[in-house]
Each structure stands twice: as C-alpha cells, then as structure tokens.
Design a protein that fits this description.
By secondary structure, this protein is α+β, with helices and mostly antiparallel strands. The protein is built from 19 helices and 24 strands.
Length: 514
C-alpha cells in the first residue's frame, strides 16, 4: 500500500465533514459543509442524497486545495454516515427520491403492522432490535405502499454510507454496522435472511452485498476522480455507521467501555461480546471485530440549541461583540444554579423520543416552575434532563447485567465543563474526555481514520491505534452527595416521562386539527 495520508468523510445529519490525515494521526486539513433537512410533514425527515455527494465533493476539493497535497499521496478513503437511512437508487446509483433518515417516523402504520406480524418476535430476535418506524424495514414497507413505482424502479436499497461509497467506487455495499436497520439481517450470522425478507415481501435481490466495514469496497472511479480531485484508483473501504465509529473515536476499544454521545443525537453505547435482545434499546455491531454495541439513542441533545435560538438573544449578542461562544456563556450560567436546578425537571422530548420510550408523540416539558425559578435554573435543568434521558437507558441495560465503569464523552456537549460534571454526577461514574496529543478530541473522524488505516493494512488493529492517538484523559469524578440527589430527582423524571405519554398523544391529536 502506497501513500502517506488518509482521507475521511463523515456524512452527518446536518453537515458533512472531510478530514485529511497523516498516517500518524495528525490533521493536515479539514472542511465541512452544511445542508438543509427537509420536513414536508411533521414526522418526516428527508434529504436529497445528492446534497451529501455534493458536500463530499466540495469538502474533498477544499482539503486538497488547502493542503496542496498531491492526490497520489492519499493511501485510501473511509466513509461513515447516519443510520436507519433508506436511499432507493437506480443501477447507476442515482437516488430515486429523497433519503429518509433516522429522524423520519412516517412509517408508524407499517411499524404497527410489523408488530402484529406472525413473525414479529422472530424479527426482533433475528436482528436484536425493536420494530419501530425509525428503522429501515418499516420505511421500505411504506415505500412499497405509498410510492410503489419508486419501489419497483429501485435497483438497490442503500444506506447513507453505501450511497457515498457507491458514488466513489461504483460498487454497491452494506457493512454490518449499518445492516441492523433491516429486520431481515441475521445479526448473529452476519447475512441477509432470504426467508425472512420473503415473508415481508421485500425483494432480497435489491439489497447490496454485506461485508465488514474494513473490507475494501473498491477504488475511486475516473468519474468520481473528476469531480472530487482524488486520484482514480484510490482504495475506498466499505465504511460504517457514524455512531459506531464515533464510539471508537471517543476511546471505546475494549469490552465494557461506554461512549456517551452529547450531540443532536445523544445517548450511550457500551461494548459487549454477546448479543443482547432488548427491544427498548438499540443493538448493532461495533466497528471492531468481536465486539457489539448496546445503545441508547435519544433525540434531546439539541434542546440547548433550541433554547439558544429561541431565548438566547442576549448571549448571542454578547458573543458577537466579544468573539465568544454562545454555548460557553450558557454553560457558565448553568454553573450558577445548584444540582437539581431548584426543583426544575426538563423532559427533553423535543422531537419525540427513541430509547427506551420509542414514542413519536412524546413532548418536551419543564416541570416545577415557580416565581423564583431563574434562567440559570432553566439552562441547568435542560442539561440535567438530557443526562436523565441517558440514565433511563443505562438502567434498562443494567437489567441485562451490563456493568459500566466509566463514560467516554463525545460530541459538542463535552465542550461544557458544567455539562460534563453534571453527567458524572448523574451517572455516578467517572466521565472521561480522551484527547489527542495536540489537545484535539476524538470522535467520528479519528475513529474512521484508524479504521481506514486497518482496512488498508497500515495497522493491525484500529483499537490499540486509537488508544495511541488518545493519550490524554481529562476525568470528571462524580460527587456522591450530588449523585444521591440526582437519583431522587431522576425517579421523578422517570415517573413524569411515563405519566405524560397519554396527555402527549391527546395533545398530538388536538394539534393535528389546527
């Protein structure tokens, strides 16, 4: 294998980030490009997949221009992308309709039909995942029912990562970490179940070949080279799920370690060596051989961003004048409130909730307001509510004997010391930020760089390589008194979250009439 650099492409919910690395893990150049998410209906969430490709092309061109690197020096390319995404494409890899992403919950009726299917329990056991409208299976059934002409014309059903890999190489692929979105994926045997797909009336021939994420999918084609600036023939690995490689990049390299995700899609992912079937949670392959990830996926991570946009005009103005950061100002304000936010509890269900509620109608709530409640209390309550949402999942995992010793943080929330300390206190375990030697953090790009290096044969195992790239650890130790206080408040949070579901459903019906 020739080449002195690796290129990684991370296709996220709202933007694509491309990074150029040296083989020792040094960032040479990076670029990102945002794109809009379309919501033509309240629970729909879709995007033109060509926007992903254009963002990938633009960011690749920018990092090559910034670095002035000869494209021949790039040893290979790695891609990761958002999960539970359905992209029906032609034989040329052109999308036939906007991609339905993980936030899309239009397939409620189809998910309900699956739960009534004679094979419902077998579907859950086969794939080790619940029958929820966010997954790809209900979306496929929705497509067949509502857009049968698209379903008929589709040559392949691709996930997000597979779409970009196809554009780069011309090869149709699906790696194990993305395959769990389909309930005819035999997770234990790592193959499509033809019999199960037939029972669901899904044509198995429209599903791409399965492979480990480190397998070489192919090489950059001449047409892809022309629009990206890459050298034709550059190797491209099959790629993977963003959450799985993000866990690796945060430092989850060994069994029992856990990634606590603090982004728009929050949650946790603990590494296991056994299959756990728990329909309240999410289960997938890890990017590392012999490891799985038991995950909790929440949608409340964007709550503080919502507060910033709606109520943070003062902080936004101050940040503009001083060149500061709005989130840093909000974090400092939250630090002025005590643990428990003077009795305020926030339910972060701003877009429904995934695990463990799996409820589209769940709604956000701020409970416990009094005339003495301050802005600091509210901001801190939002941070605490997001941590409670993760703890809700942790307690479900504990029912299966899953033990967690420490949490390795990732995502934008790790830039707030206040939020990191809140999480350590809520979970009652050390909250760890693993950093690169230059002070930079890990995350999707770092994990993908290590994984690509393994796929190219440049390192034997991505796990130890990541540990080498993350030598610095900042640890937030839990305070036992605050932890005890938070457990009492969490009991109230959990009770509220269940009691308000009926009211949330009623409110959704009433809102639909306006």
């Amino acid at each position: 294998m020739t080449g002195t650099h690796i290129l990684t492409i991370d296709i996220g919910t709202s933007s694509t980030k491309t990074v150029l690395w040296t083989l020792d893990g040094t960032v040479v150049a990076q670029a990102s490009q945002a794109y809009p998410l379309e919501r033509p209906e309240p629970v729909w969430a879709e995007i033109d997949a060509d926007l992903w490709w254009r963002a990938a092309c633009a960011t690749i061109q920018r990092v090559l221009a910034e670095s002035r690197l000869d494209p021949a020096a790039i040893a290979g390319v790695g891609v990761d992308g958002v999960g539970w995404t359905l992209v029906p494409v032609t034989s040329n890899g052109d999308p036939l309709r906007p991609a339905m992403i993980w936030l899309d919950r239009r397939a409620e009726v189809e998910a309900a039909q699956l739960r009534e299917h004679p094979r419902a329990e077998a579907l859950i056991d086969l794939d080790a995942n619940p029958l929820d409208p966010a997954y790809i299976t209900p979306k496929l059934l929705w497509l067949q029912s509502h857009e049968p002409e698209i379903a008929e014309r589709a040559h392949q059903y691709l996930a997000c990562t597979g779409f970009i890999v196809a554009r780069l190489t011309g090869a149709f692929t699906c790696d194990y970490t993305q395959a769990y979105g389909y309930h005819f994926f035999d997770l234990r045997r790592e193959r499509w179940s033809t019999d199960t797909a037939r029972a669901l009336s899904i044509p198995i021939e429209k599903l791409p070949p399965l492979s480990p994420c480190t397998d070489l999918a192919g090489a950059v084609t001449s047409s892809a080279a022309a629009v990206t600036g890459l050298r034709a023939g550059t190797p491209v690995i099959a790629g993977c799920l963003d959450a799985a490689v993000g866990a690796l990049g945060s430092g989850v390299t060994r069994l029992g370690q856990t990634n606590e995700q603090g982004g728009q899609a929050g949650g946790m992912a603990v590494s296991l060596d056994r299959v756990v079937v728990e329909p309240r949670l999410i289960f997938s392959h890890h990017v590392l051989n012999g490891q799985y990830l038991l995950q909790g996926g929440t949608v409340g991570g964007g709550s503080l961003g919502w507060f910033r946009d709606v109520f943070g005009q003062v902080e936004a103005a101050a940040a503009q004048l001083t060149g500061g950061d709005v989130f840093a100002l909000l974090s400092a304000e939250a630090a002025r409130a005590p643990a428990g936010s003077h009795g305020l509890i926030f339910l972060p269900y701003m877009a429904g909730e995934r695990t463990p509620l799996w409820n589209t109608q769940a709604r956000g709530a701020l409970f416990g307001l009094t005339y003495s409640s301050s802005r600091a209390d509210i901001v801190r309550a939002i941070m605490e509510g997001c941590a409670y949402a993760v703890l809700d999942n942790i307690q479900v995992a504990a029912e299966h004997g899953v033990h967690i010793d420490e949490y390795l943080g990732s995502g934008g929330a790790t830039h707030s010391p206040t939020w990191c300390q809140i999480k350590a206190d809520v979970y009652g375990k050390p909250f760890v930020l693993a950093r690169r030697p230059d002070g930079g953090e890990g995350g999707h790009a770092l994990g993908l760089m290590a994984l690509t290096a393994q796929g190219l044969g440049l390192v034997r195992d991505a796990g130890p390589f990541v540990e080498h790239l993350l030598p610095s650890r900042r640890v937030y130790e839990p305070d036992p008194i605050r932890h005890a206080r938070y457990l009492e408040l969490f009991a109230v949070y959990r009770s509220l979250s269940r009691k308000l579901l009926d009211e949330a459903r009623a409110l959704a019906r009433l809102s639909a009439r306006t």
